[in-house]
């Protein structure tokens, strides 16, 4: 008997959000069995499976056999079939149309009606170490080179100079025809949102896409207001609803429907932090990871900075001698973490020095990134996209702790005032 499409998934409400939970364990033996079948490994040949890491929606396992290691990515069915199939389609498109190093997909199953009991992707294990672990020992020249390379990748993903790589609708790539389909994005599948009877893409314009996102927020908050007995939740919904309605009324002002036909789309990787960038010992990029939910979005989204450059501004270089050394307590705590693969050696200095160091480096590297983008893409729509980027940010923050900021920004836009969201 087939499993229900979301069997194994449960959503847990936390203080700020809904978080997906695994209701049953993933069987190592089942993964080994599936790998032996998919890779035609004889019973007498070795095949070992070991847990590697986990993310919000996935668990990763390293599979070793005679032809080398692979990664098995087992996924919760948050958006049954669509999310797994979209990730496979995206990886294939990136490999075929850009120079971005991404894993090759060996095999996949976009249903949970299999021996593992979950959707899965078996893919190439990419060489390299997360840049986060090497960052403190990399030279500034290496960091500049990495930043320029990421800018080059963004230009390639945007389809600049390659008409065949430009998309005309908003959505996540799908199979068998690798083209934008349903939009696989958190707000579309979290909790019971996956069952909402709403347009899901592909969308032909920013206007249509963001209008639907706001309707999702309105529907969710209205349901809270009508069903919850928690006074705090009701109070939050009463504050969020008018802000979402105001933003919805402003969509035609920021994204006039008459301009819809002129929009073009490109792939946008929204989660380029240093743990998703692998590097070798020379600091050169060997892989870019985590392509789930990466979609074809309007080119104005490409003016967002990569996550690793999104730090507070700091122009003055922090001087190491100006910061305190670790306290004995901090040193003792650090000693207990040295076997953690994510441990970063503070070299006896207070952690504040490295925080300020990262802010300073990100500030300088932002200039490098923007200069490289303009060099490769002279028409890069940076300044003209500010209000669109801020509108997207206001939507993203209006149903959370920054609702008041979203309201202040929307009030300014309604009055015709020019203000950045971060300054509202």
From TrEMBL:
Residues 310-344 are annotated as: Disordered. Pfam families: APH. Residues 310-323 have a biased composition (Basic and acidic residues). Residues 50-295 form the Aminoglycoside phosphotransferase domain. Keywords: Kinase, Transferase. GO terms for molecular function: kinase activity. InterPro entries: AGP_Transferase, Aminoglycoside_PTrfase, Kinase-like_dom_sf. This is Kinase-like protein. It comes from Chaetomidium leptoderma. The lineage of its organism: Eukaryota, Fungi, Dikarya, Ascomycota, Pezizomycotina.
